[in-house]
């Protein structure tokens, strides 16, 4: 049993037995379930092996952002771990149902979980969990970031695809351990550095760097997740100025010597980096505020 503070609207759970095809029992493809009751089998391979993929979608004033890009990425992650393709129409319907069933709030975090399912069945388990977003305001105001070694080179996606660089898998214990290490070092978050010296991404975010009029991010081919937020900002910048965000391998000095850097993600939005380890970075508050608006879908 879980209980929730009476001050915070209750989360919503939607089970999606039809996520990879019509349910065997002929029942509905998805339905609301009791979020406070146990729902996951102890033999689900996500519980025993961390074996599954997921997405986190932000919804602002009830409107989700980038649903299709998120679910297309879910399908790509599923393919990378040889899971059956999710039925996107069903999952879109379940995401919409979760948002509709939730009390109206300004910021909702909608998780889409897709696991290898109960051992031996071959049928993925899927659920949608919508809850009030964490308070990201302190991050959006600016944060210290620690550089941590990821222990893999930028060629790992080509040389060692079984390490799943670039897939959004449910084995995030390493990512969370990195954030705890950053906190021990007095920082709020992490920028991973590849063993060949190039900067990569955060444990749950994409790096964006400004150099003069140019905006740069880590190439997806370097083994980072293809971010939906950086894609939205790139489309916005391209429409506005004719050039979007360019992919380029960058060193630590490229970031510390830049005109500003952010960590981006769908629920955190754009969080400016004030310090990278000891190095102080410039922060453009007006530009950051505009990025937040783009990422909430307001402009
Ligand atoms: N990189 C990693 C490893 C992530 O886990 C995430 C999101 O959680 C991102 C980047 C940012 O992706 P998006 O902008 O699609 O939220």
TrEMBL record:
InterPro entries to which the protein is assigned, alphabetical: Aminotrans_IV, Aminotransferase-like, BCAT-like_C, BCAT-like_N, Class-IV_PLP-Dep_Aminotrnsfr
Gene Ontology CC annotations of this record: cytosol
Keywords: Lyase
A biological process term (GO) from this entry: carboxylic acid biosynthetic process
A GO term for molecular function: lyase activity
Domain of life: Bacteria
Pfam families cross-referenced by the UniProt entry: Aminotran_4 (PF01063)
Family, per entry: Belongs to the class-IV pyridoxal-phosphate-dependent aminotransferase family.
Protein name, UniProt field: Aminodeoxychorismate lyase
């Amino acid at each position: 049993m879980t209980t929730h503070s009476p001050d915070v609207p209750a989360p919503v759970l939607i089970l999606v037995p039809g996520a990879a095809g019509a349910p065997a029992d002929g029942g509905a493809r998805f339905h609301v379930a009791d979020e406070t009751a146990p729902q996951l089998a102890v033999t689900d391979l996500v519980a025993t092996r961390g074996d599954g993929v997921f997405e986190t979608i932000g919804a602002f004033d009830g409107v989700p952002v980038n649903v299709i890009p998120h679910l297309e990425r879910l399908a790509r992650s599923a393919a990378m771990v040889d899971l059956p393709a999710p039925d996107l129409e069903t999952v879109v319907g379940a995401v919409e149902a979760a948002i509709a069933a939730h009390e109206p709030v300004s910021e909702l975090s909608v998780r889409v979980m897709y696991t290898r399912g109960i051992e031996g069945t071959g049928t993925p388990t899927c659920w949608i969990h919508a809850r009030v977003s964490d308070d990201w305001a302190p991050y959006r105001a600016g944060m210290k970031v620690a550089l941590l070694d990821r222990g893999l080179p930028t060629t790992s996606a080509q040389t060692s695809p079984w390490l799943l660089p670039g897939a959004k898998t449910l084995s995030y214990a390493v990512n969370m351990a990195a954030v705890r290490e950053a906190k021990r070092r007095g920082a709020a978050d992490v920028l991973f550095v590849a063993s060949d010296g190039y900067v990569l991404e955060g444990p749950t975010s994409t790096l964006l760097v400004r150099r003069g009029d140019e905006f740069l991010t880590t190439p997806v081919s370097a083994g980072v997740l293809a971010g939906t937020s950086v894609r939205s900002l790139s489309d916005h910048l391209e429409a506005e100025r004719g050039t979007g965000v360019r992919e380029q391998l960058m060193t630590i000095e490229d970031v510390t010597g830049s005109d500003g850097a952010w960590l981006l993600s769908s629920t955190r939005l754009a969080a400016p980096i004030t310090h990278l380890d000891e190095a102080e970075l410039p922060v453009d508050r007006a530009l950051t505020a505009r990025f937040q608006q783009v990422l909430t879908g307001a402009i």
